[in-house]
Amino acid sequence: MSISILxxxxxxxxxxxxxxxxxxxxxxxxxxxxNSAIRRISSQLLLDGGRELVxxxxxxxxxxxxxxxxxxxxxx
Length: 76
Hints:
Blueprint: E1 2-8, E2 20-24, H1 43-47, E3 52-57, E4 60-66, E5 72-75
Antiparallel strand pairs: 1-2, 1-3, 3-4, 4-5
């Protein structure tokens, strides 16, 4: 499974020309694991050293930001 993300290295940098990257998600469930298990992915892997990423969902954009206090904020 792969998803496309746009990543910004600075929280105030918003450019339409930011390159789209493909993030390969690894299925960590074992063959005997329950199919109802919730998938988990680290924020460090998602942000890839940046402080913000844009998630495209049903035609809209959501911004996942890492604050100065290392909290995550998701806004539309």
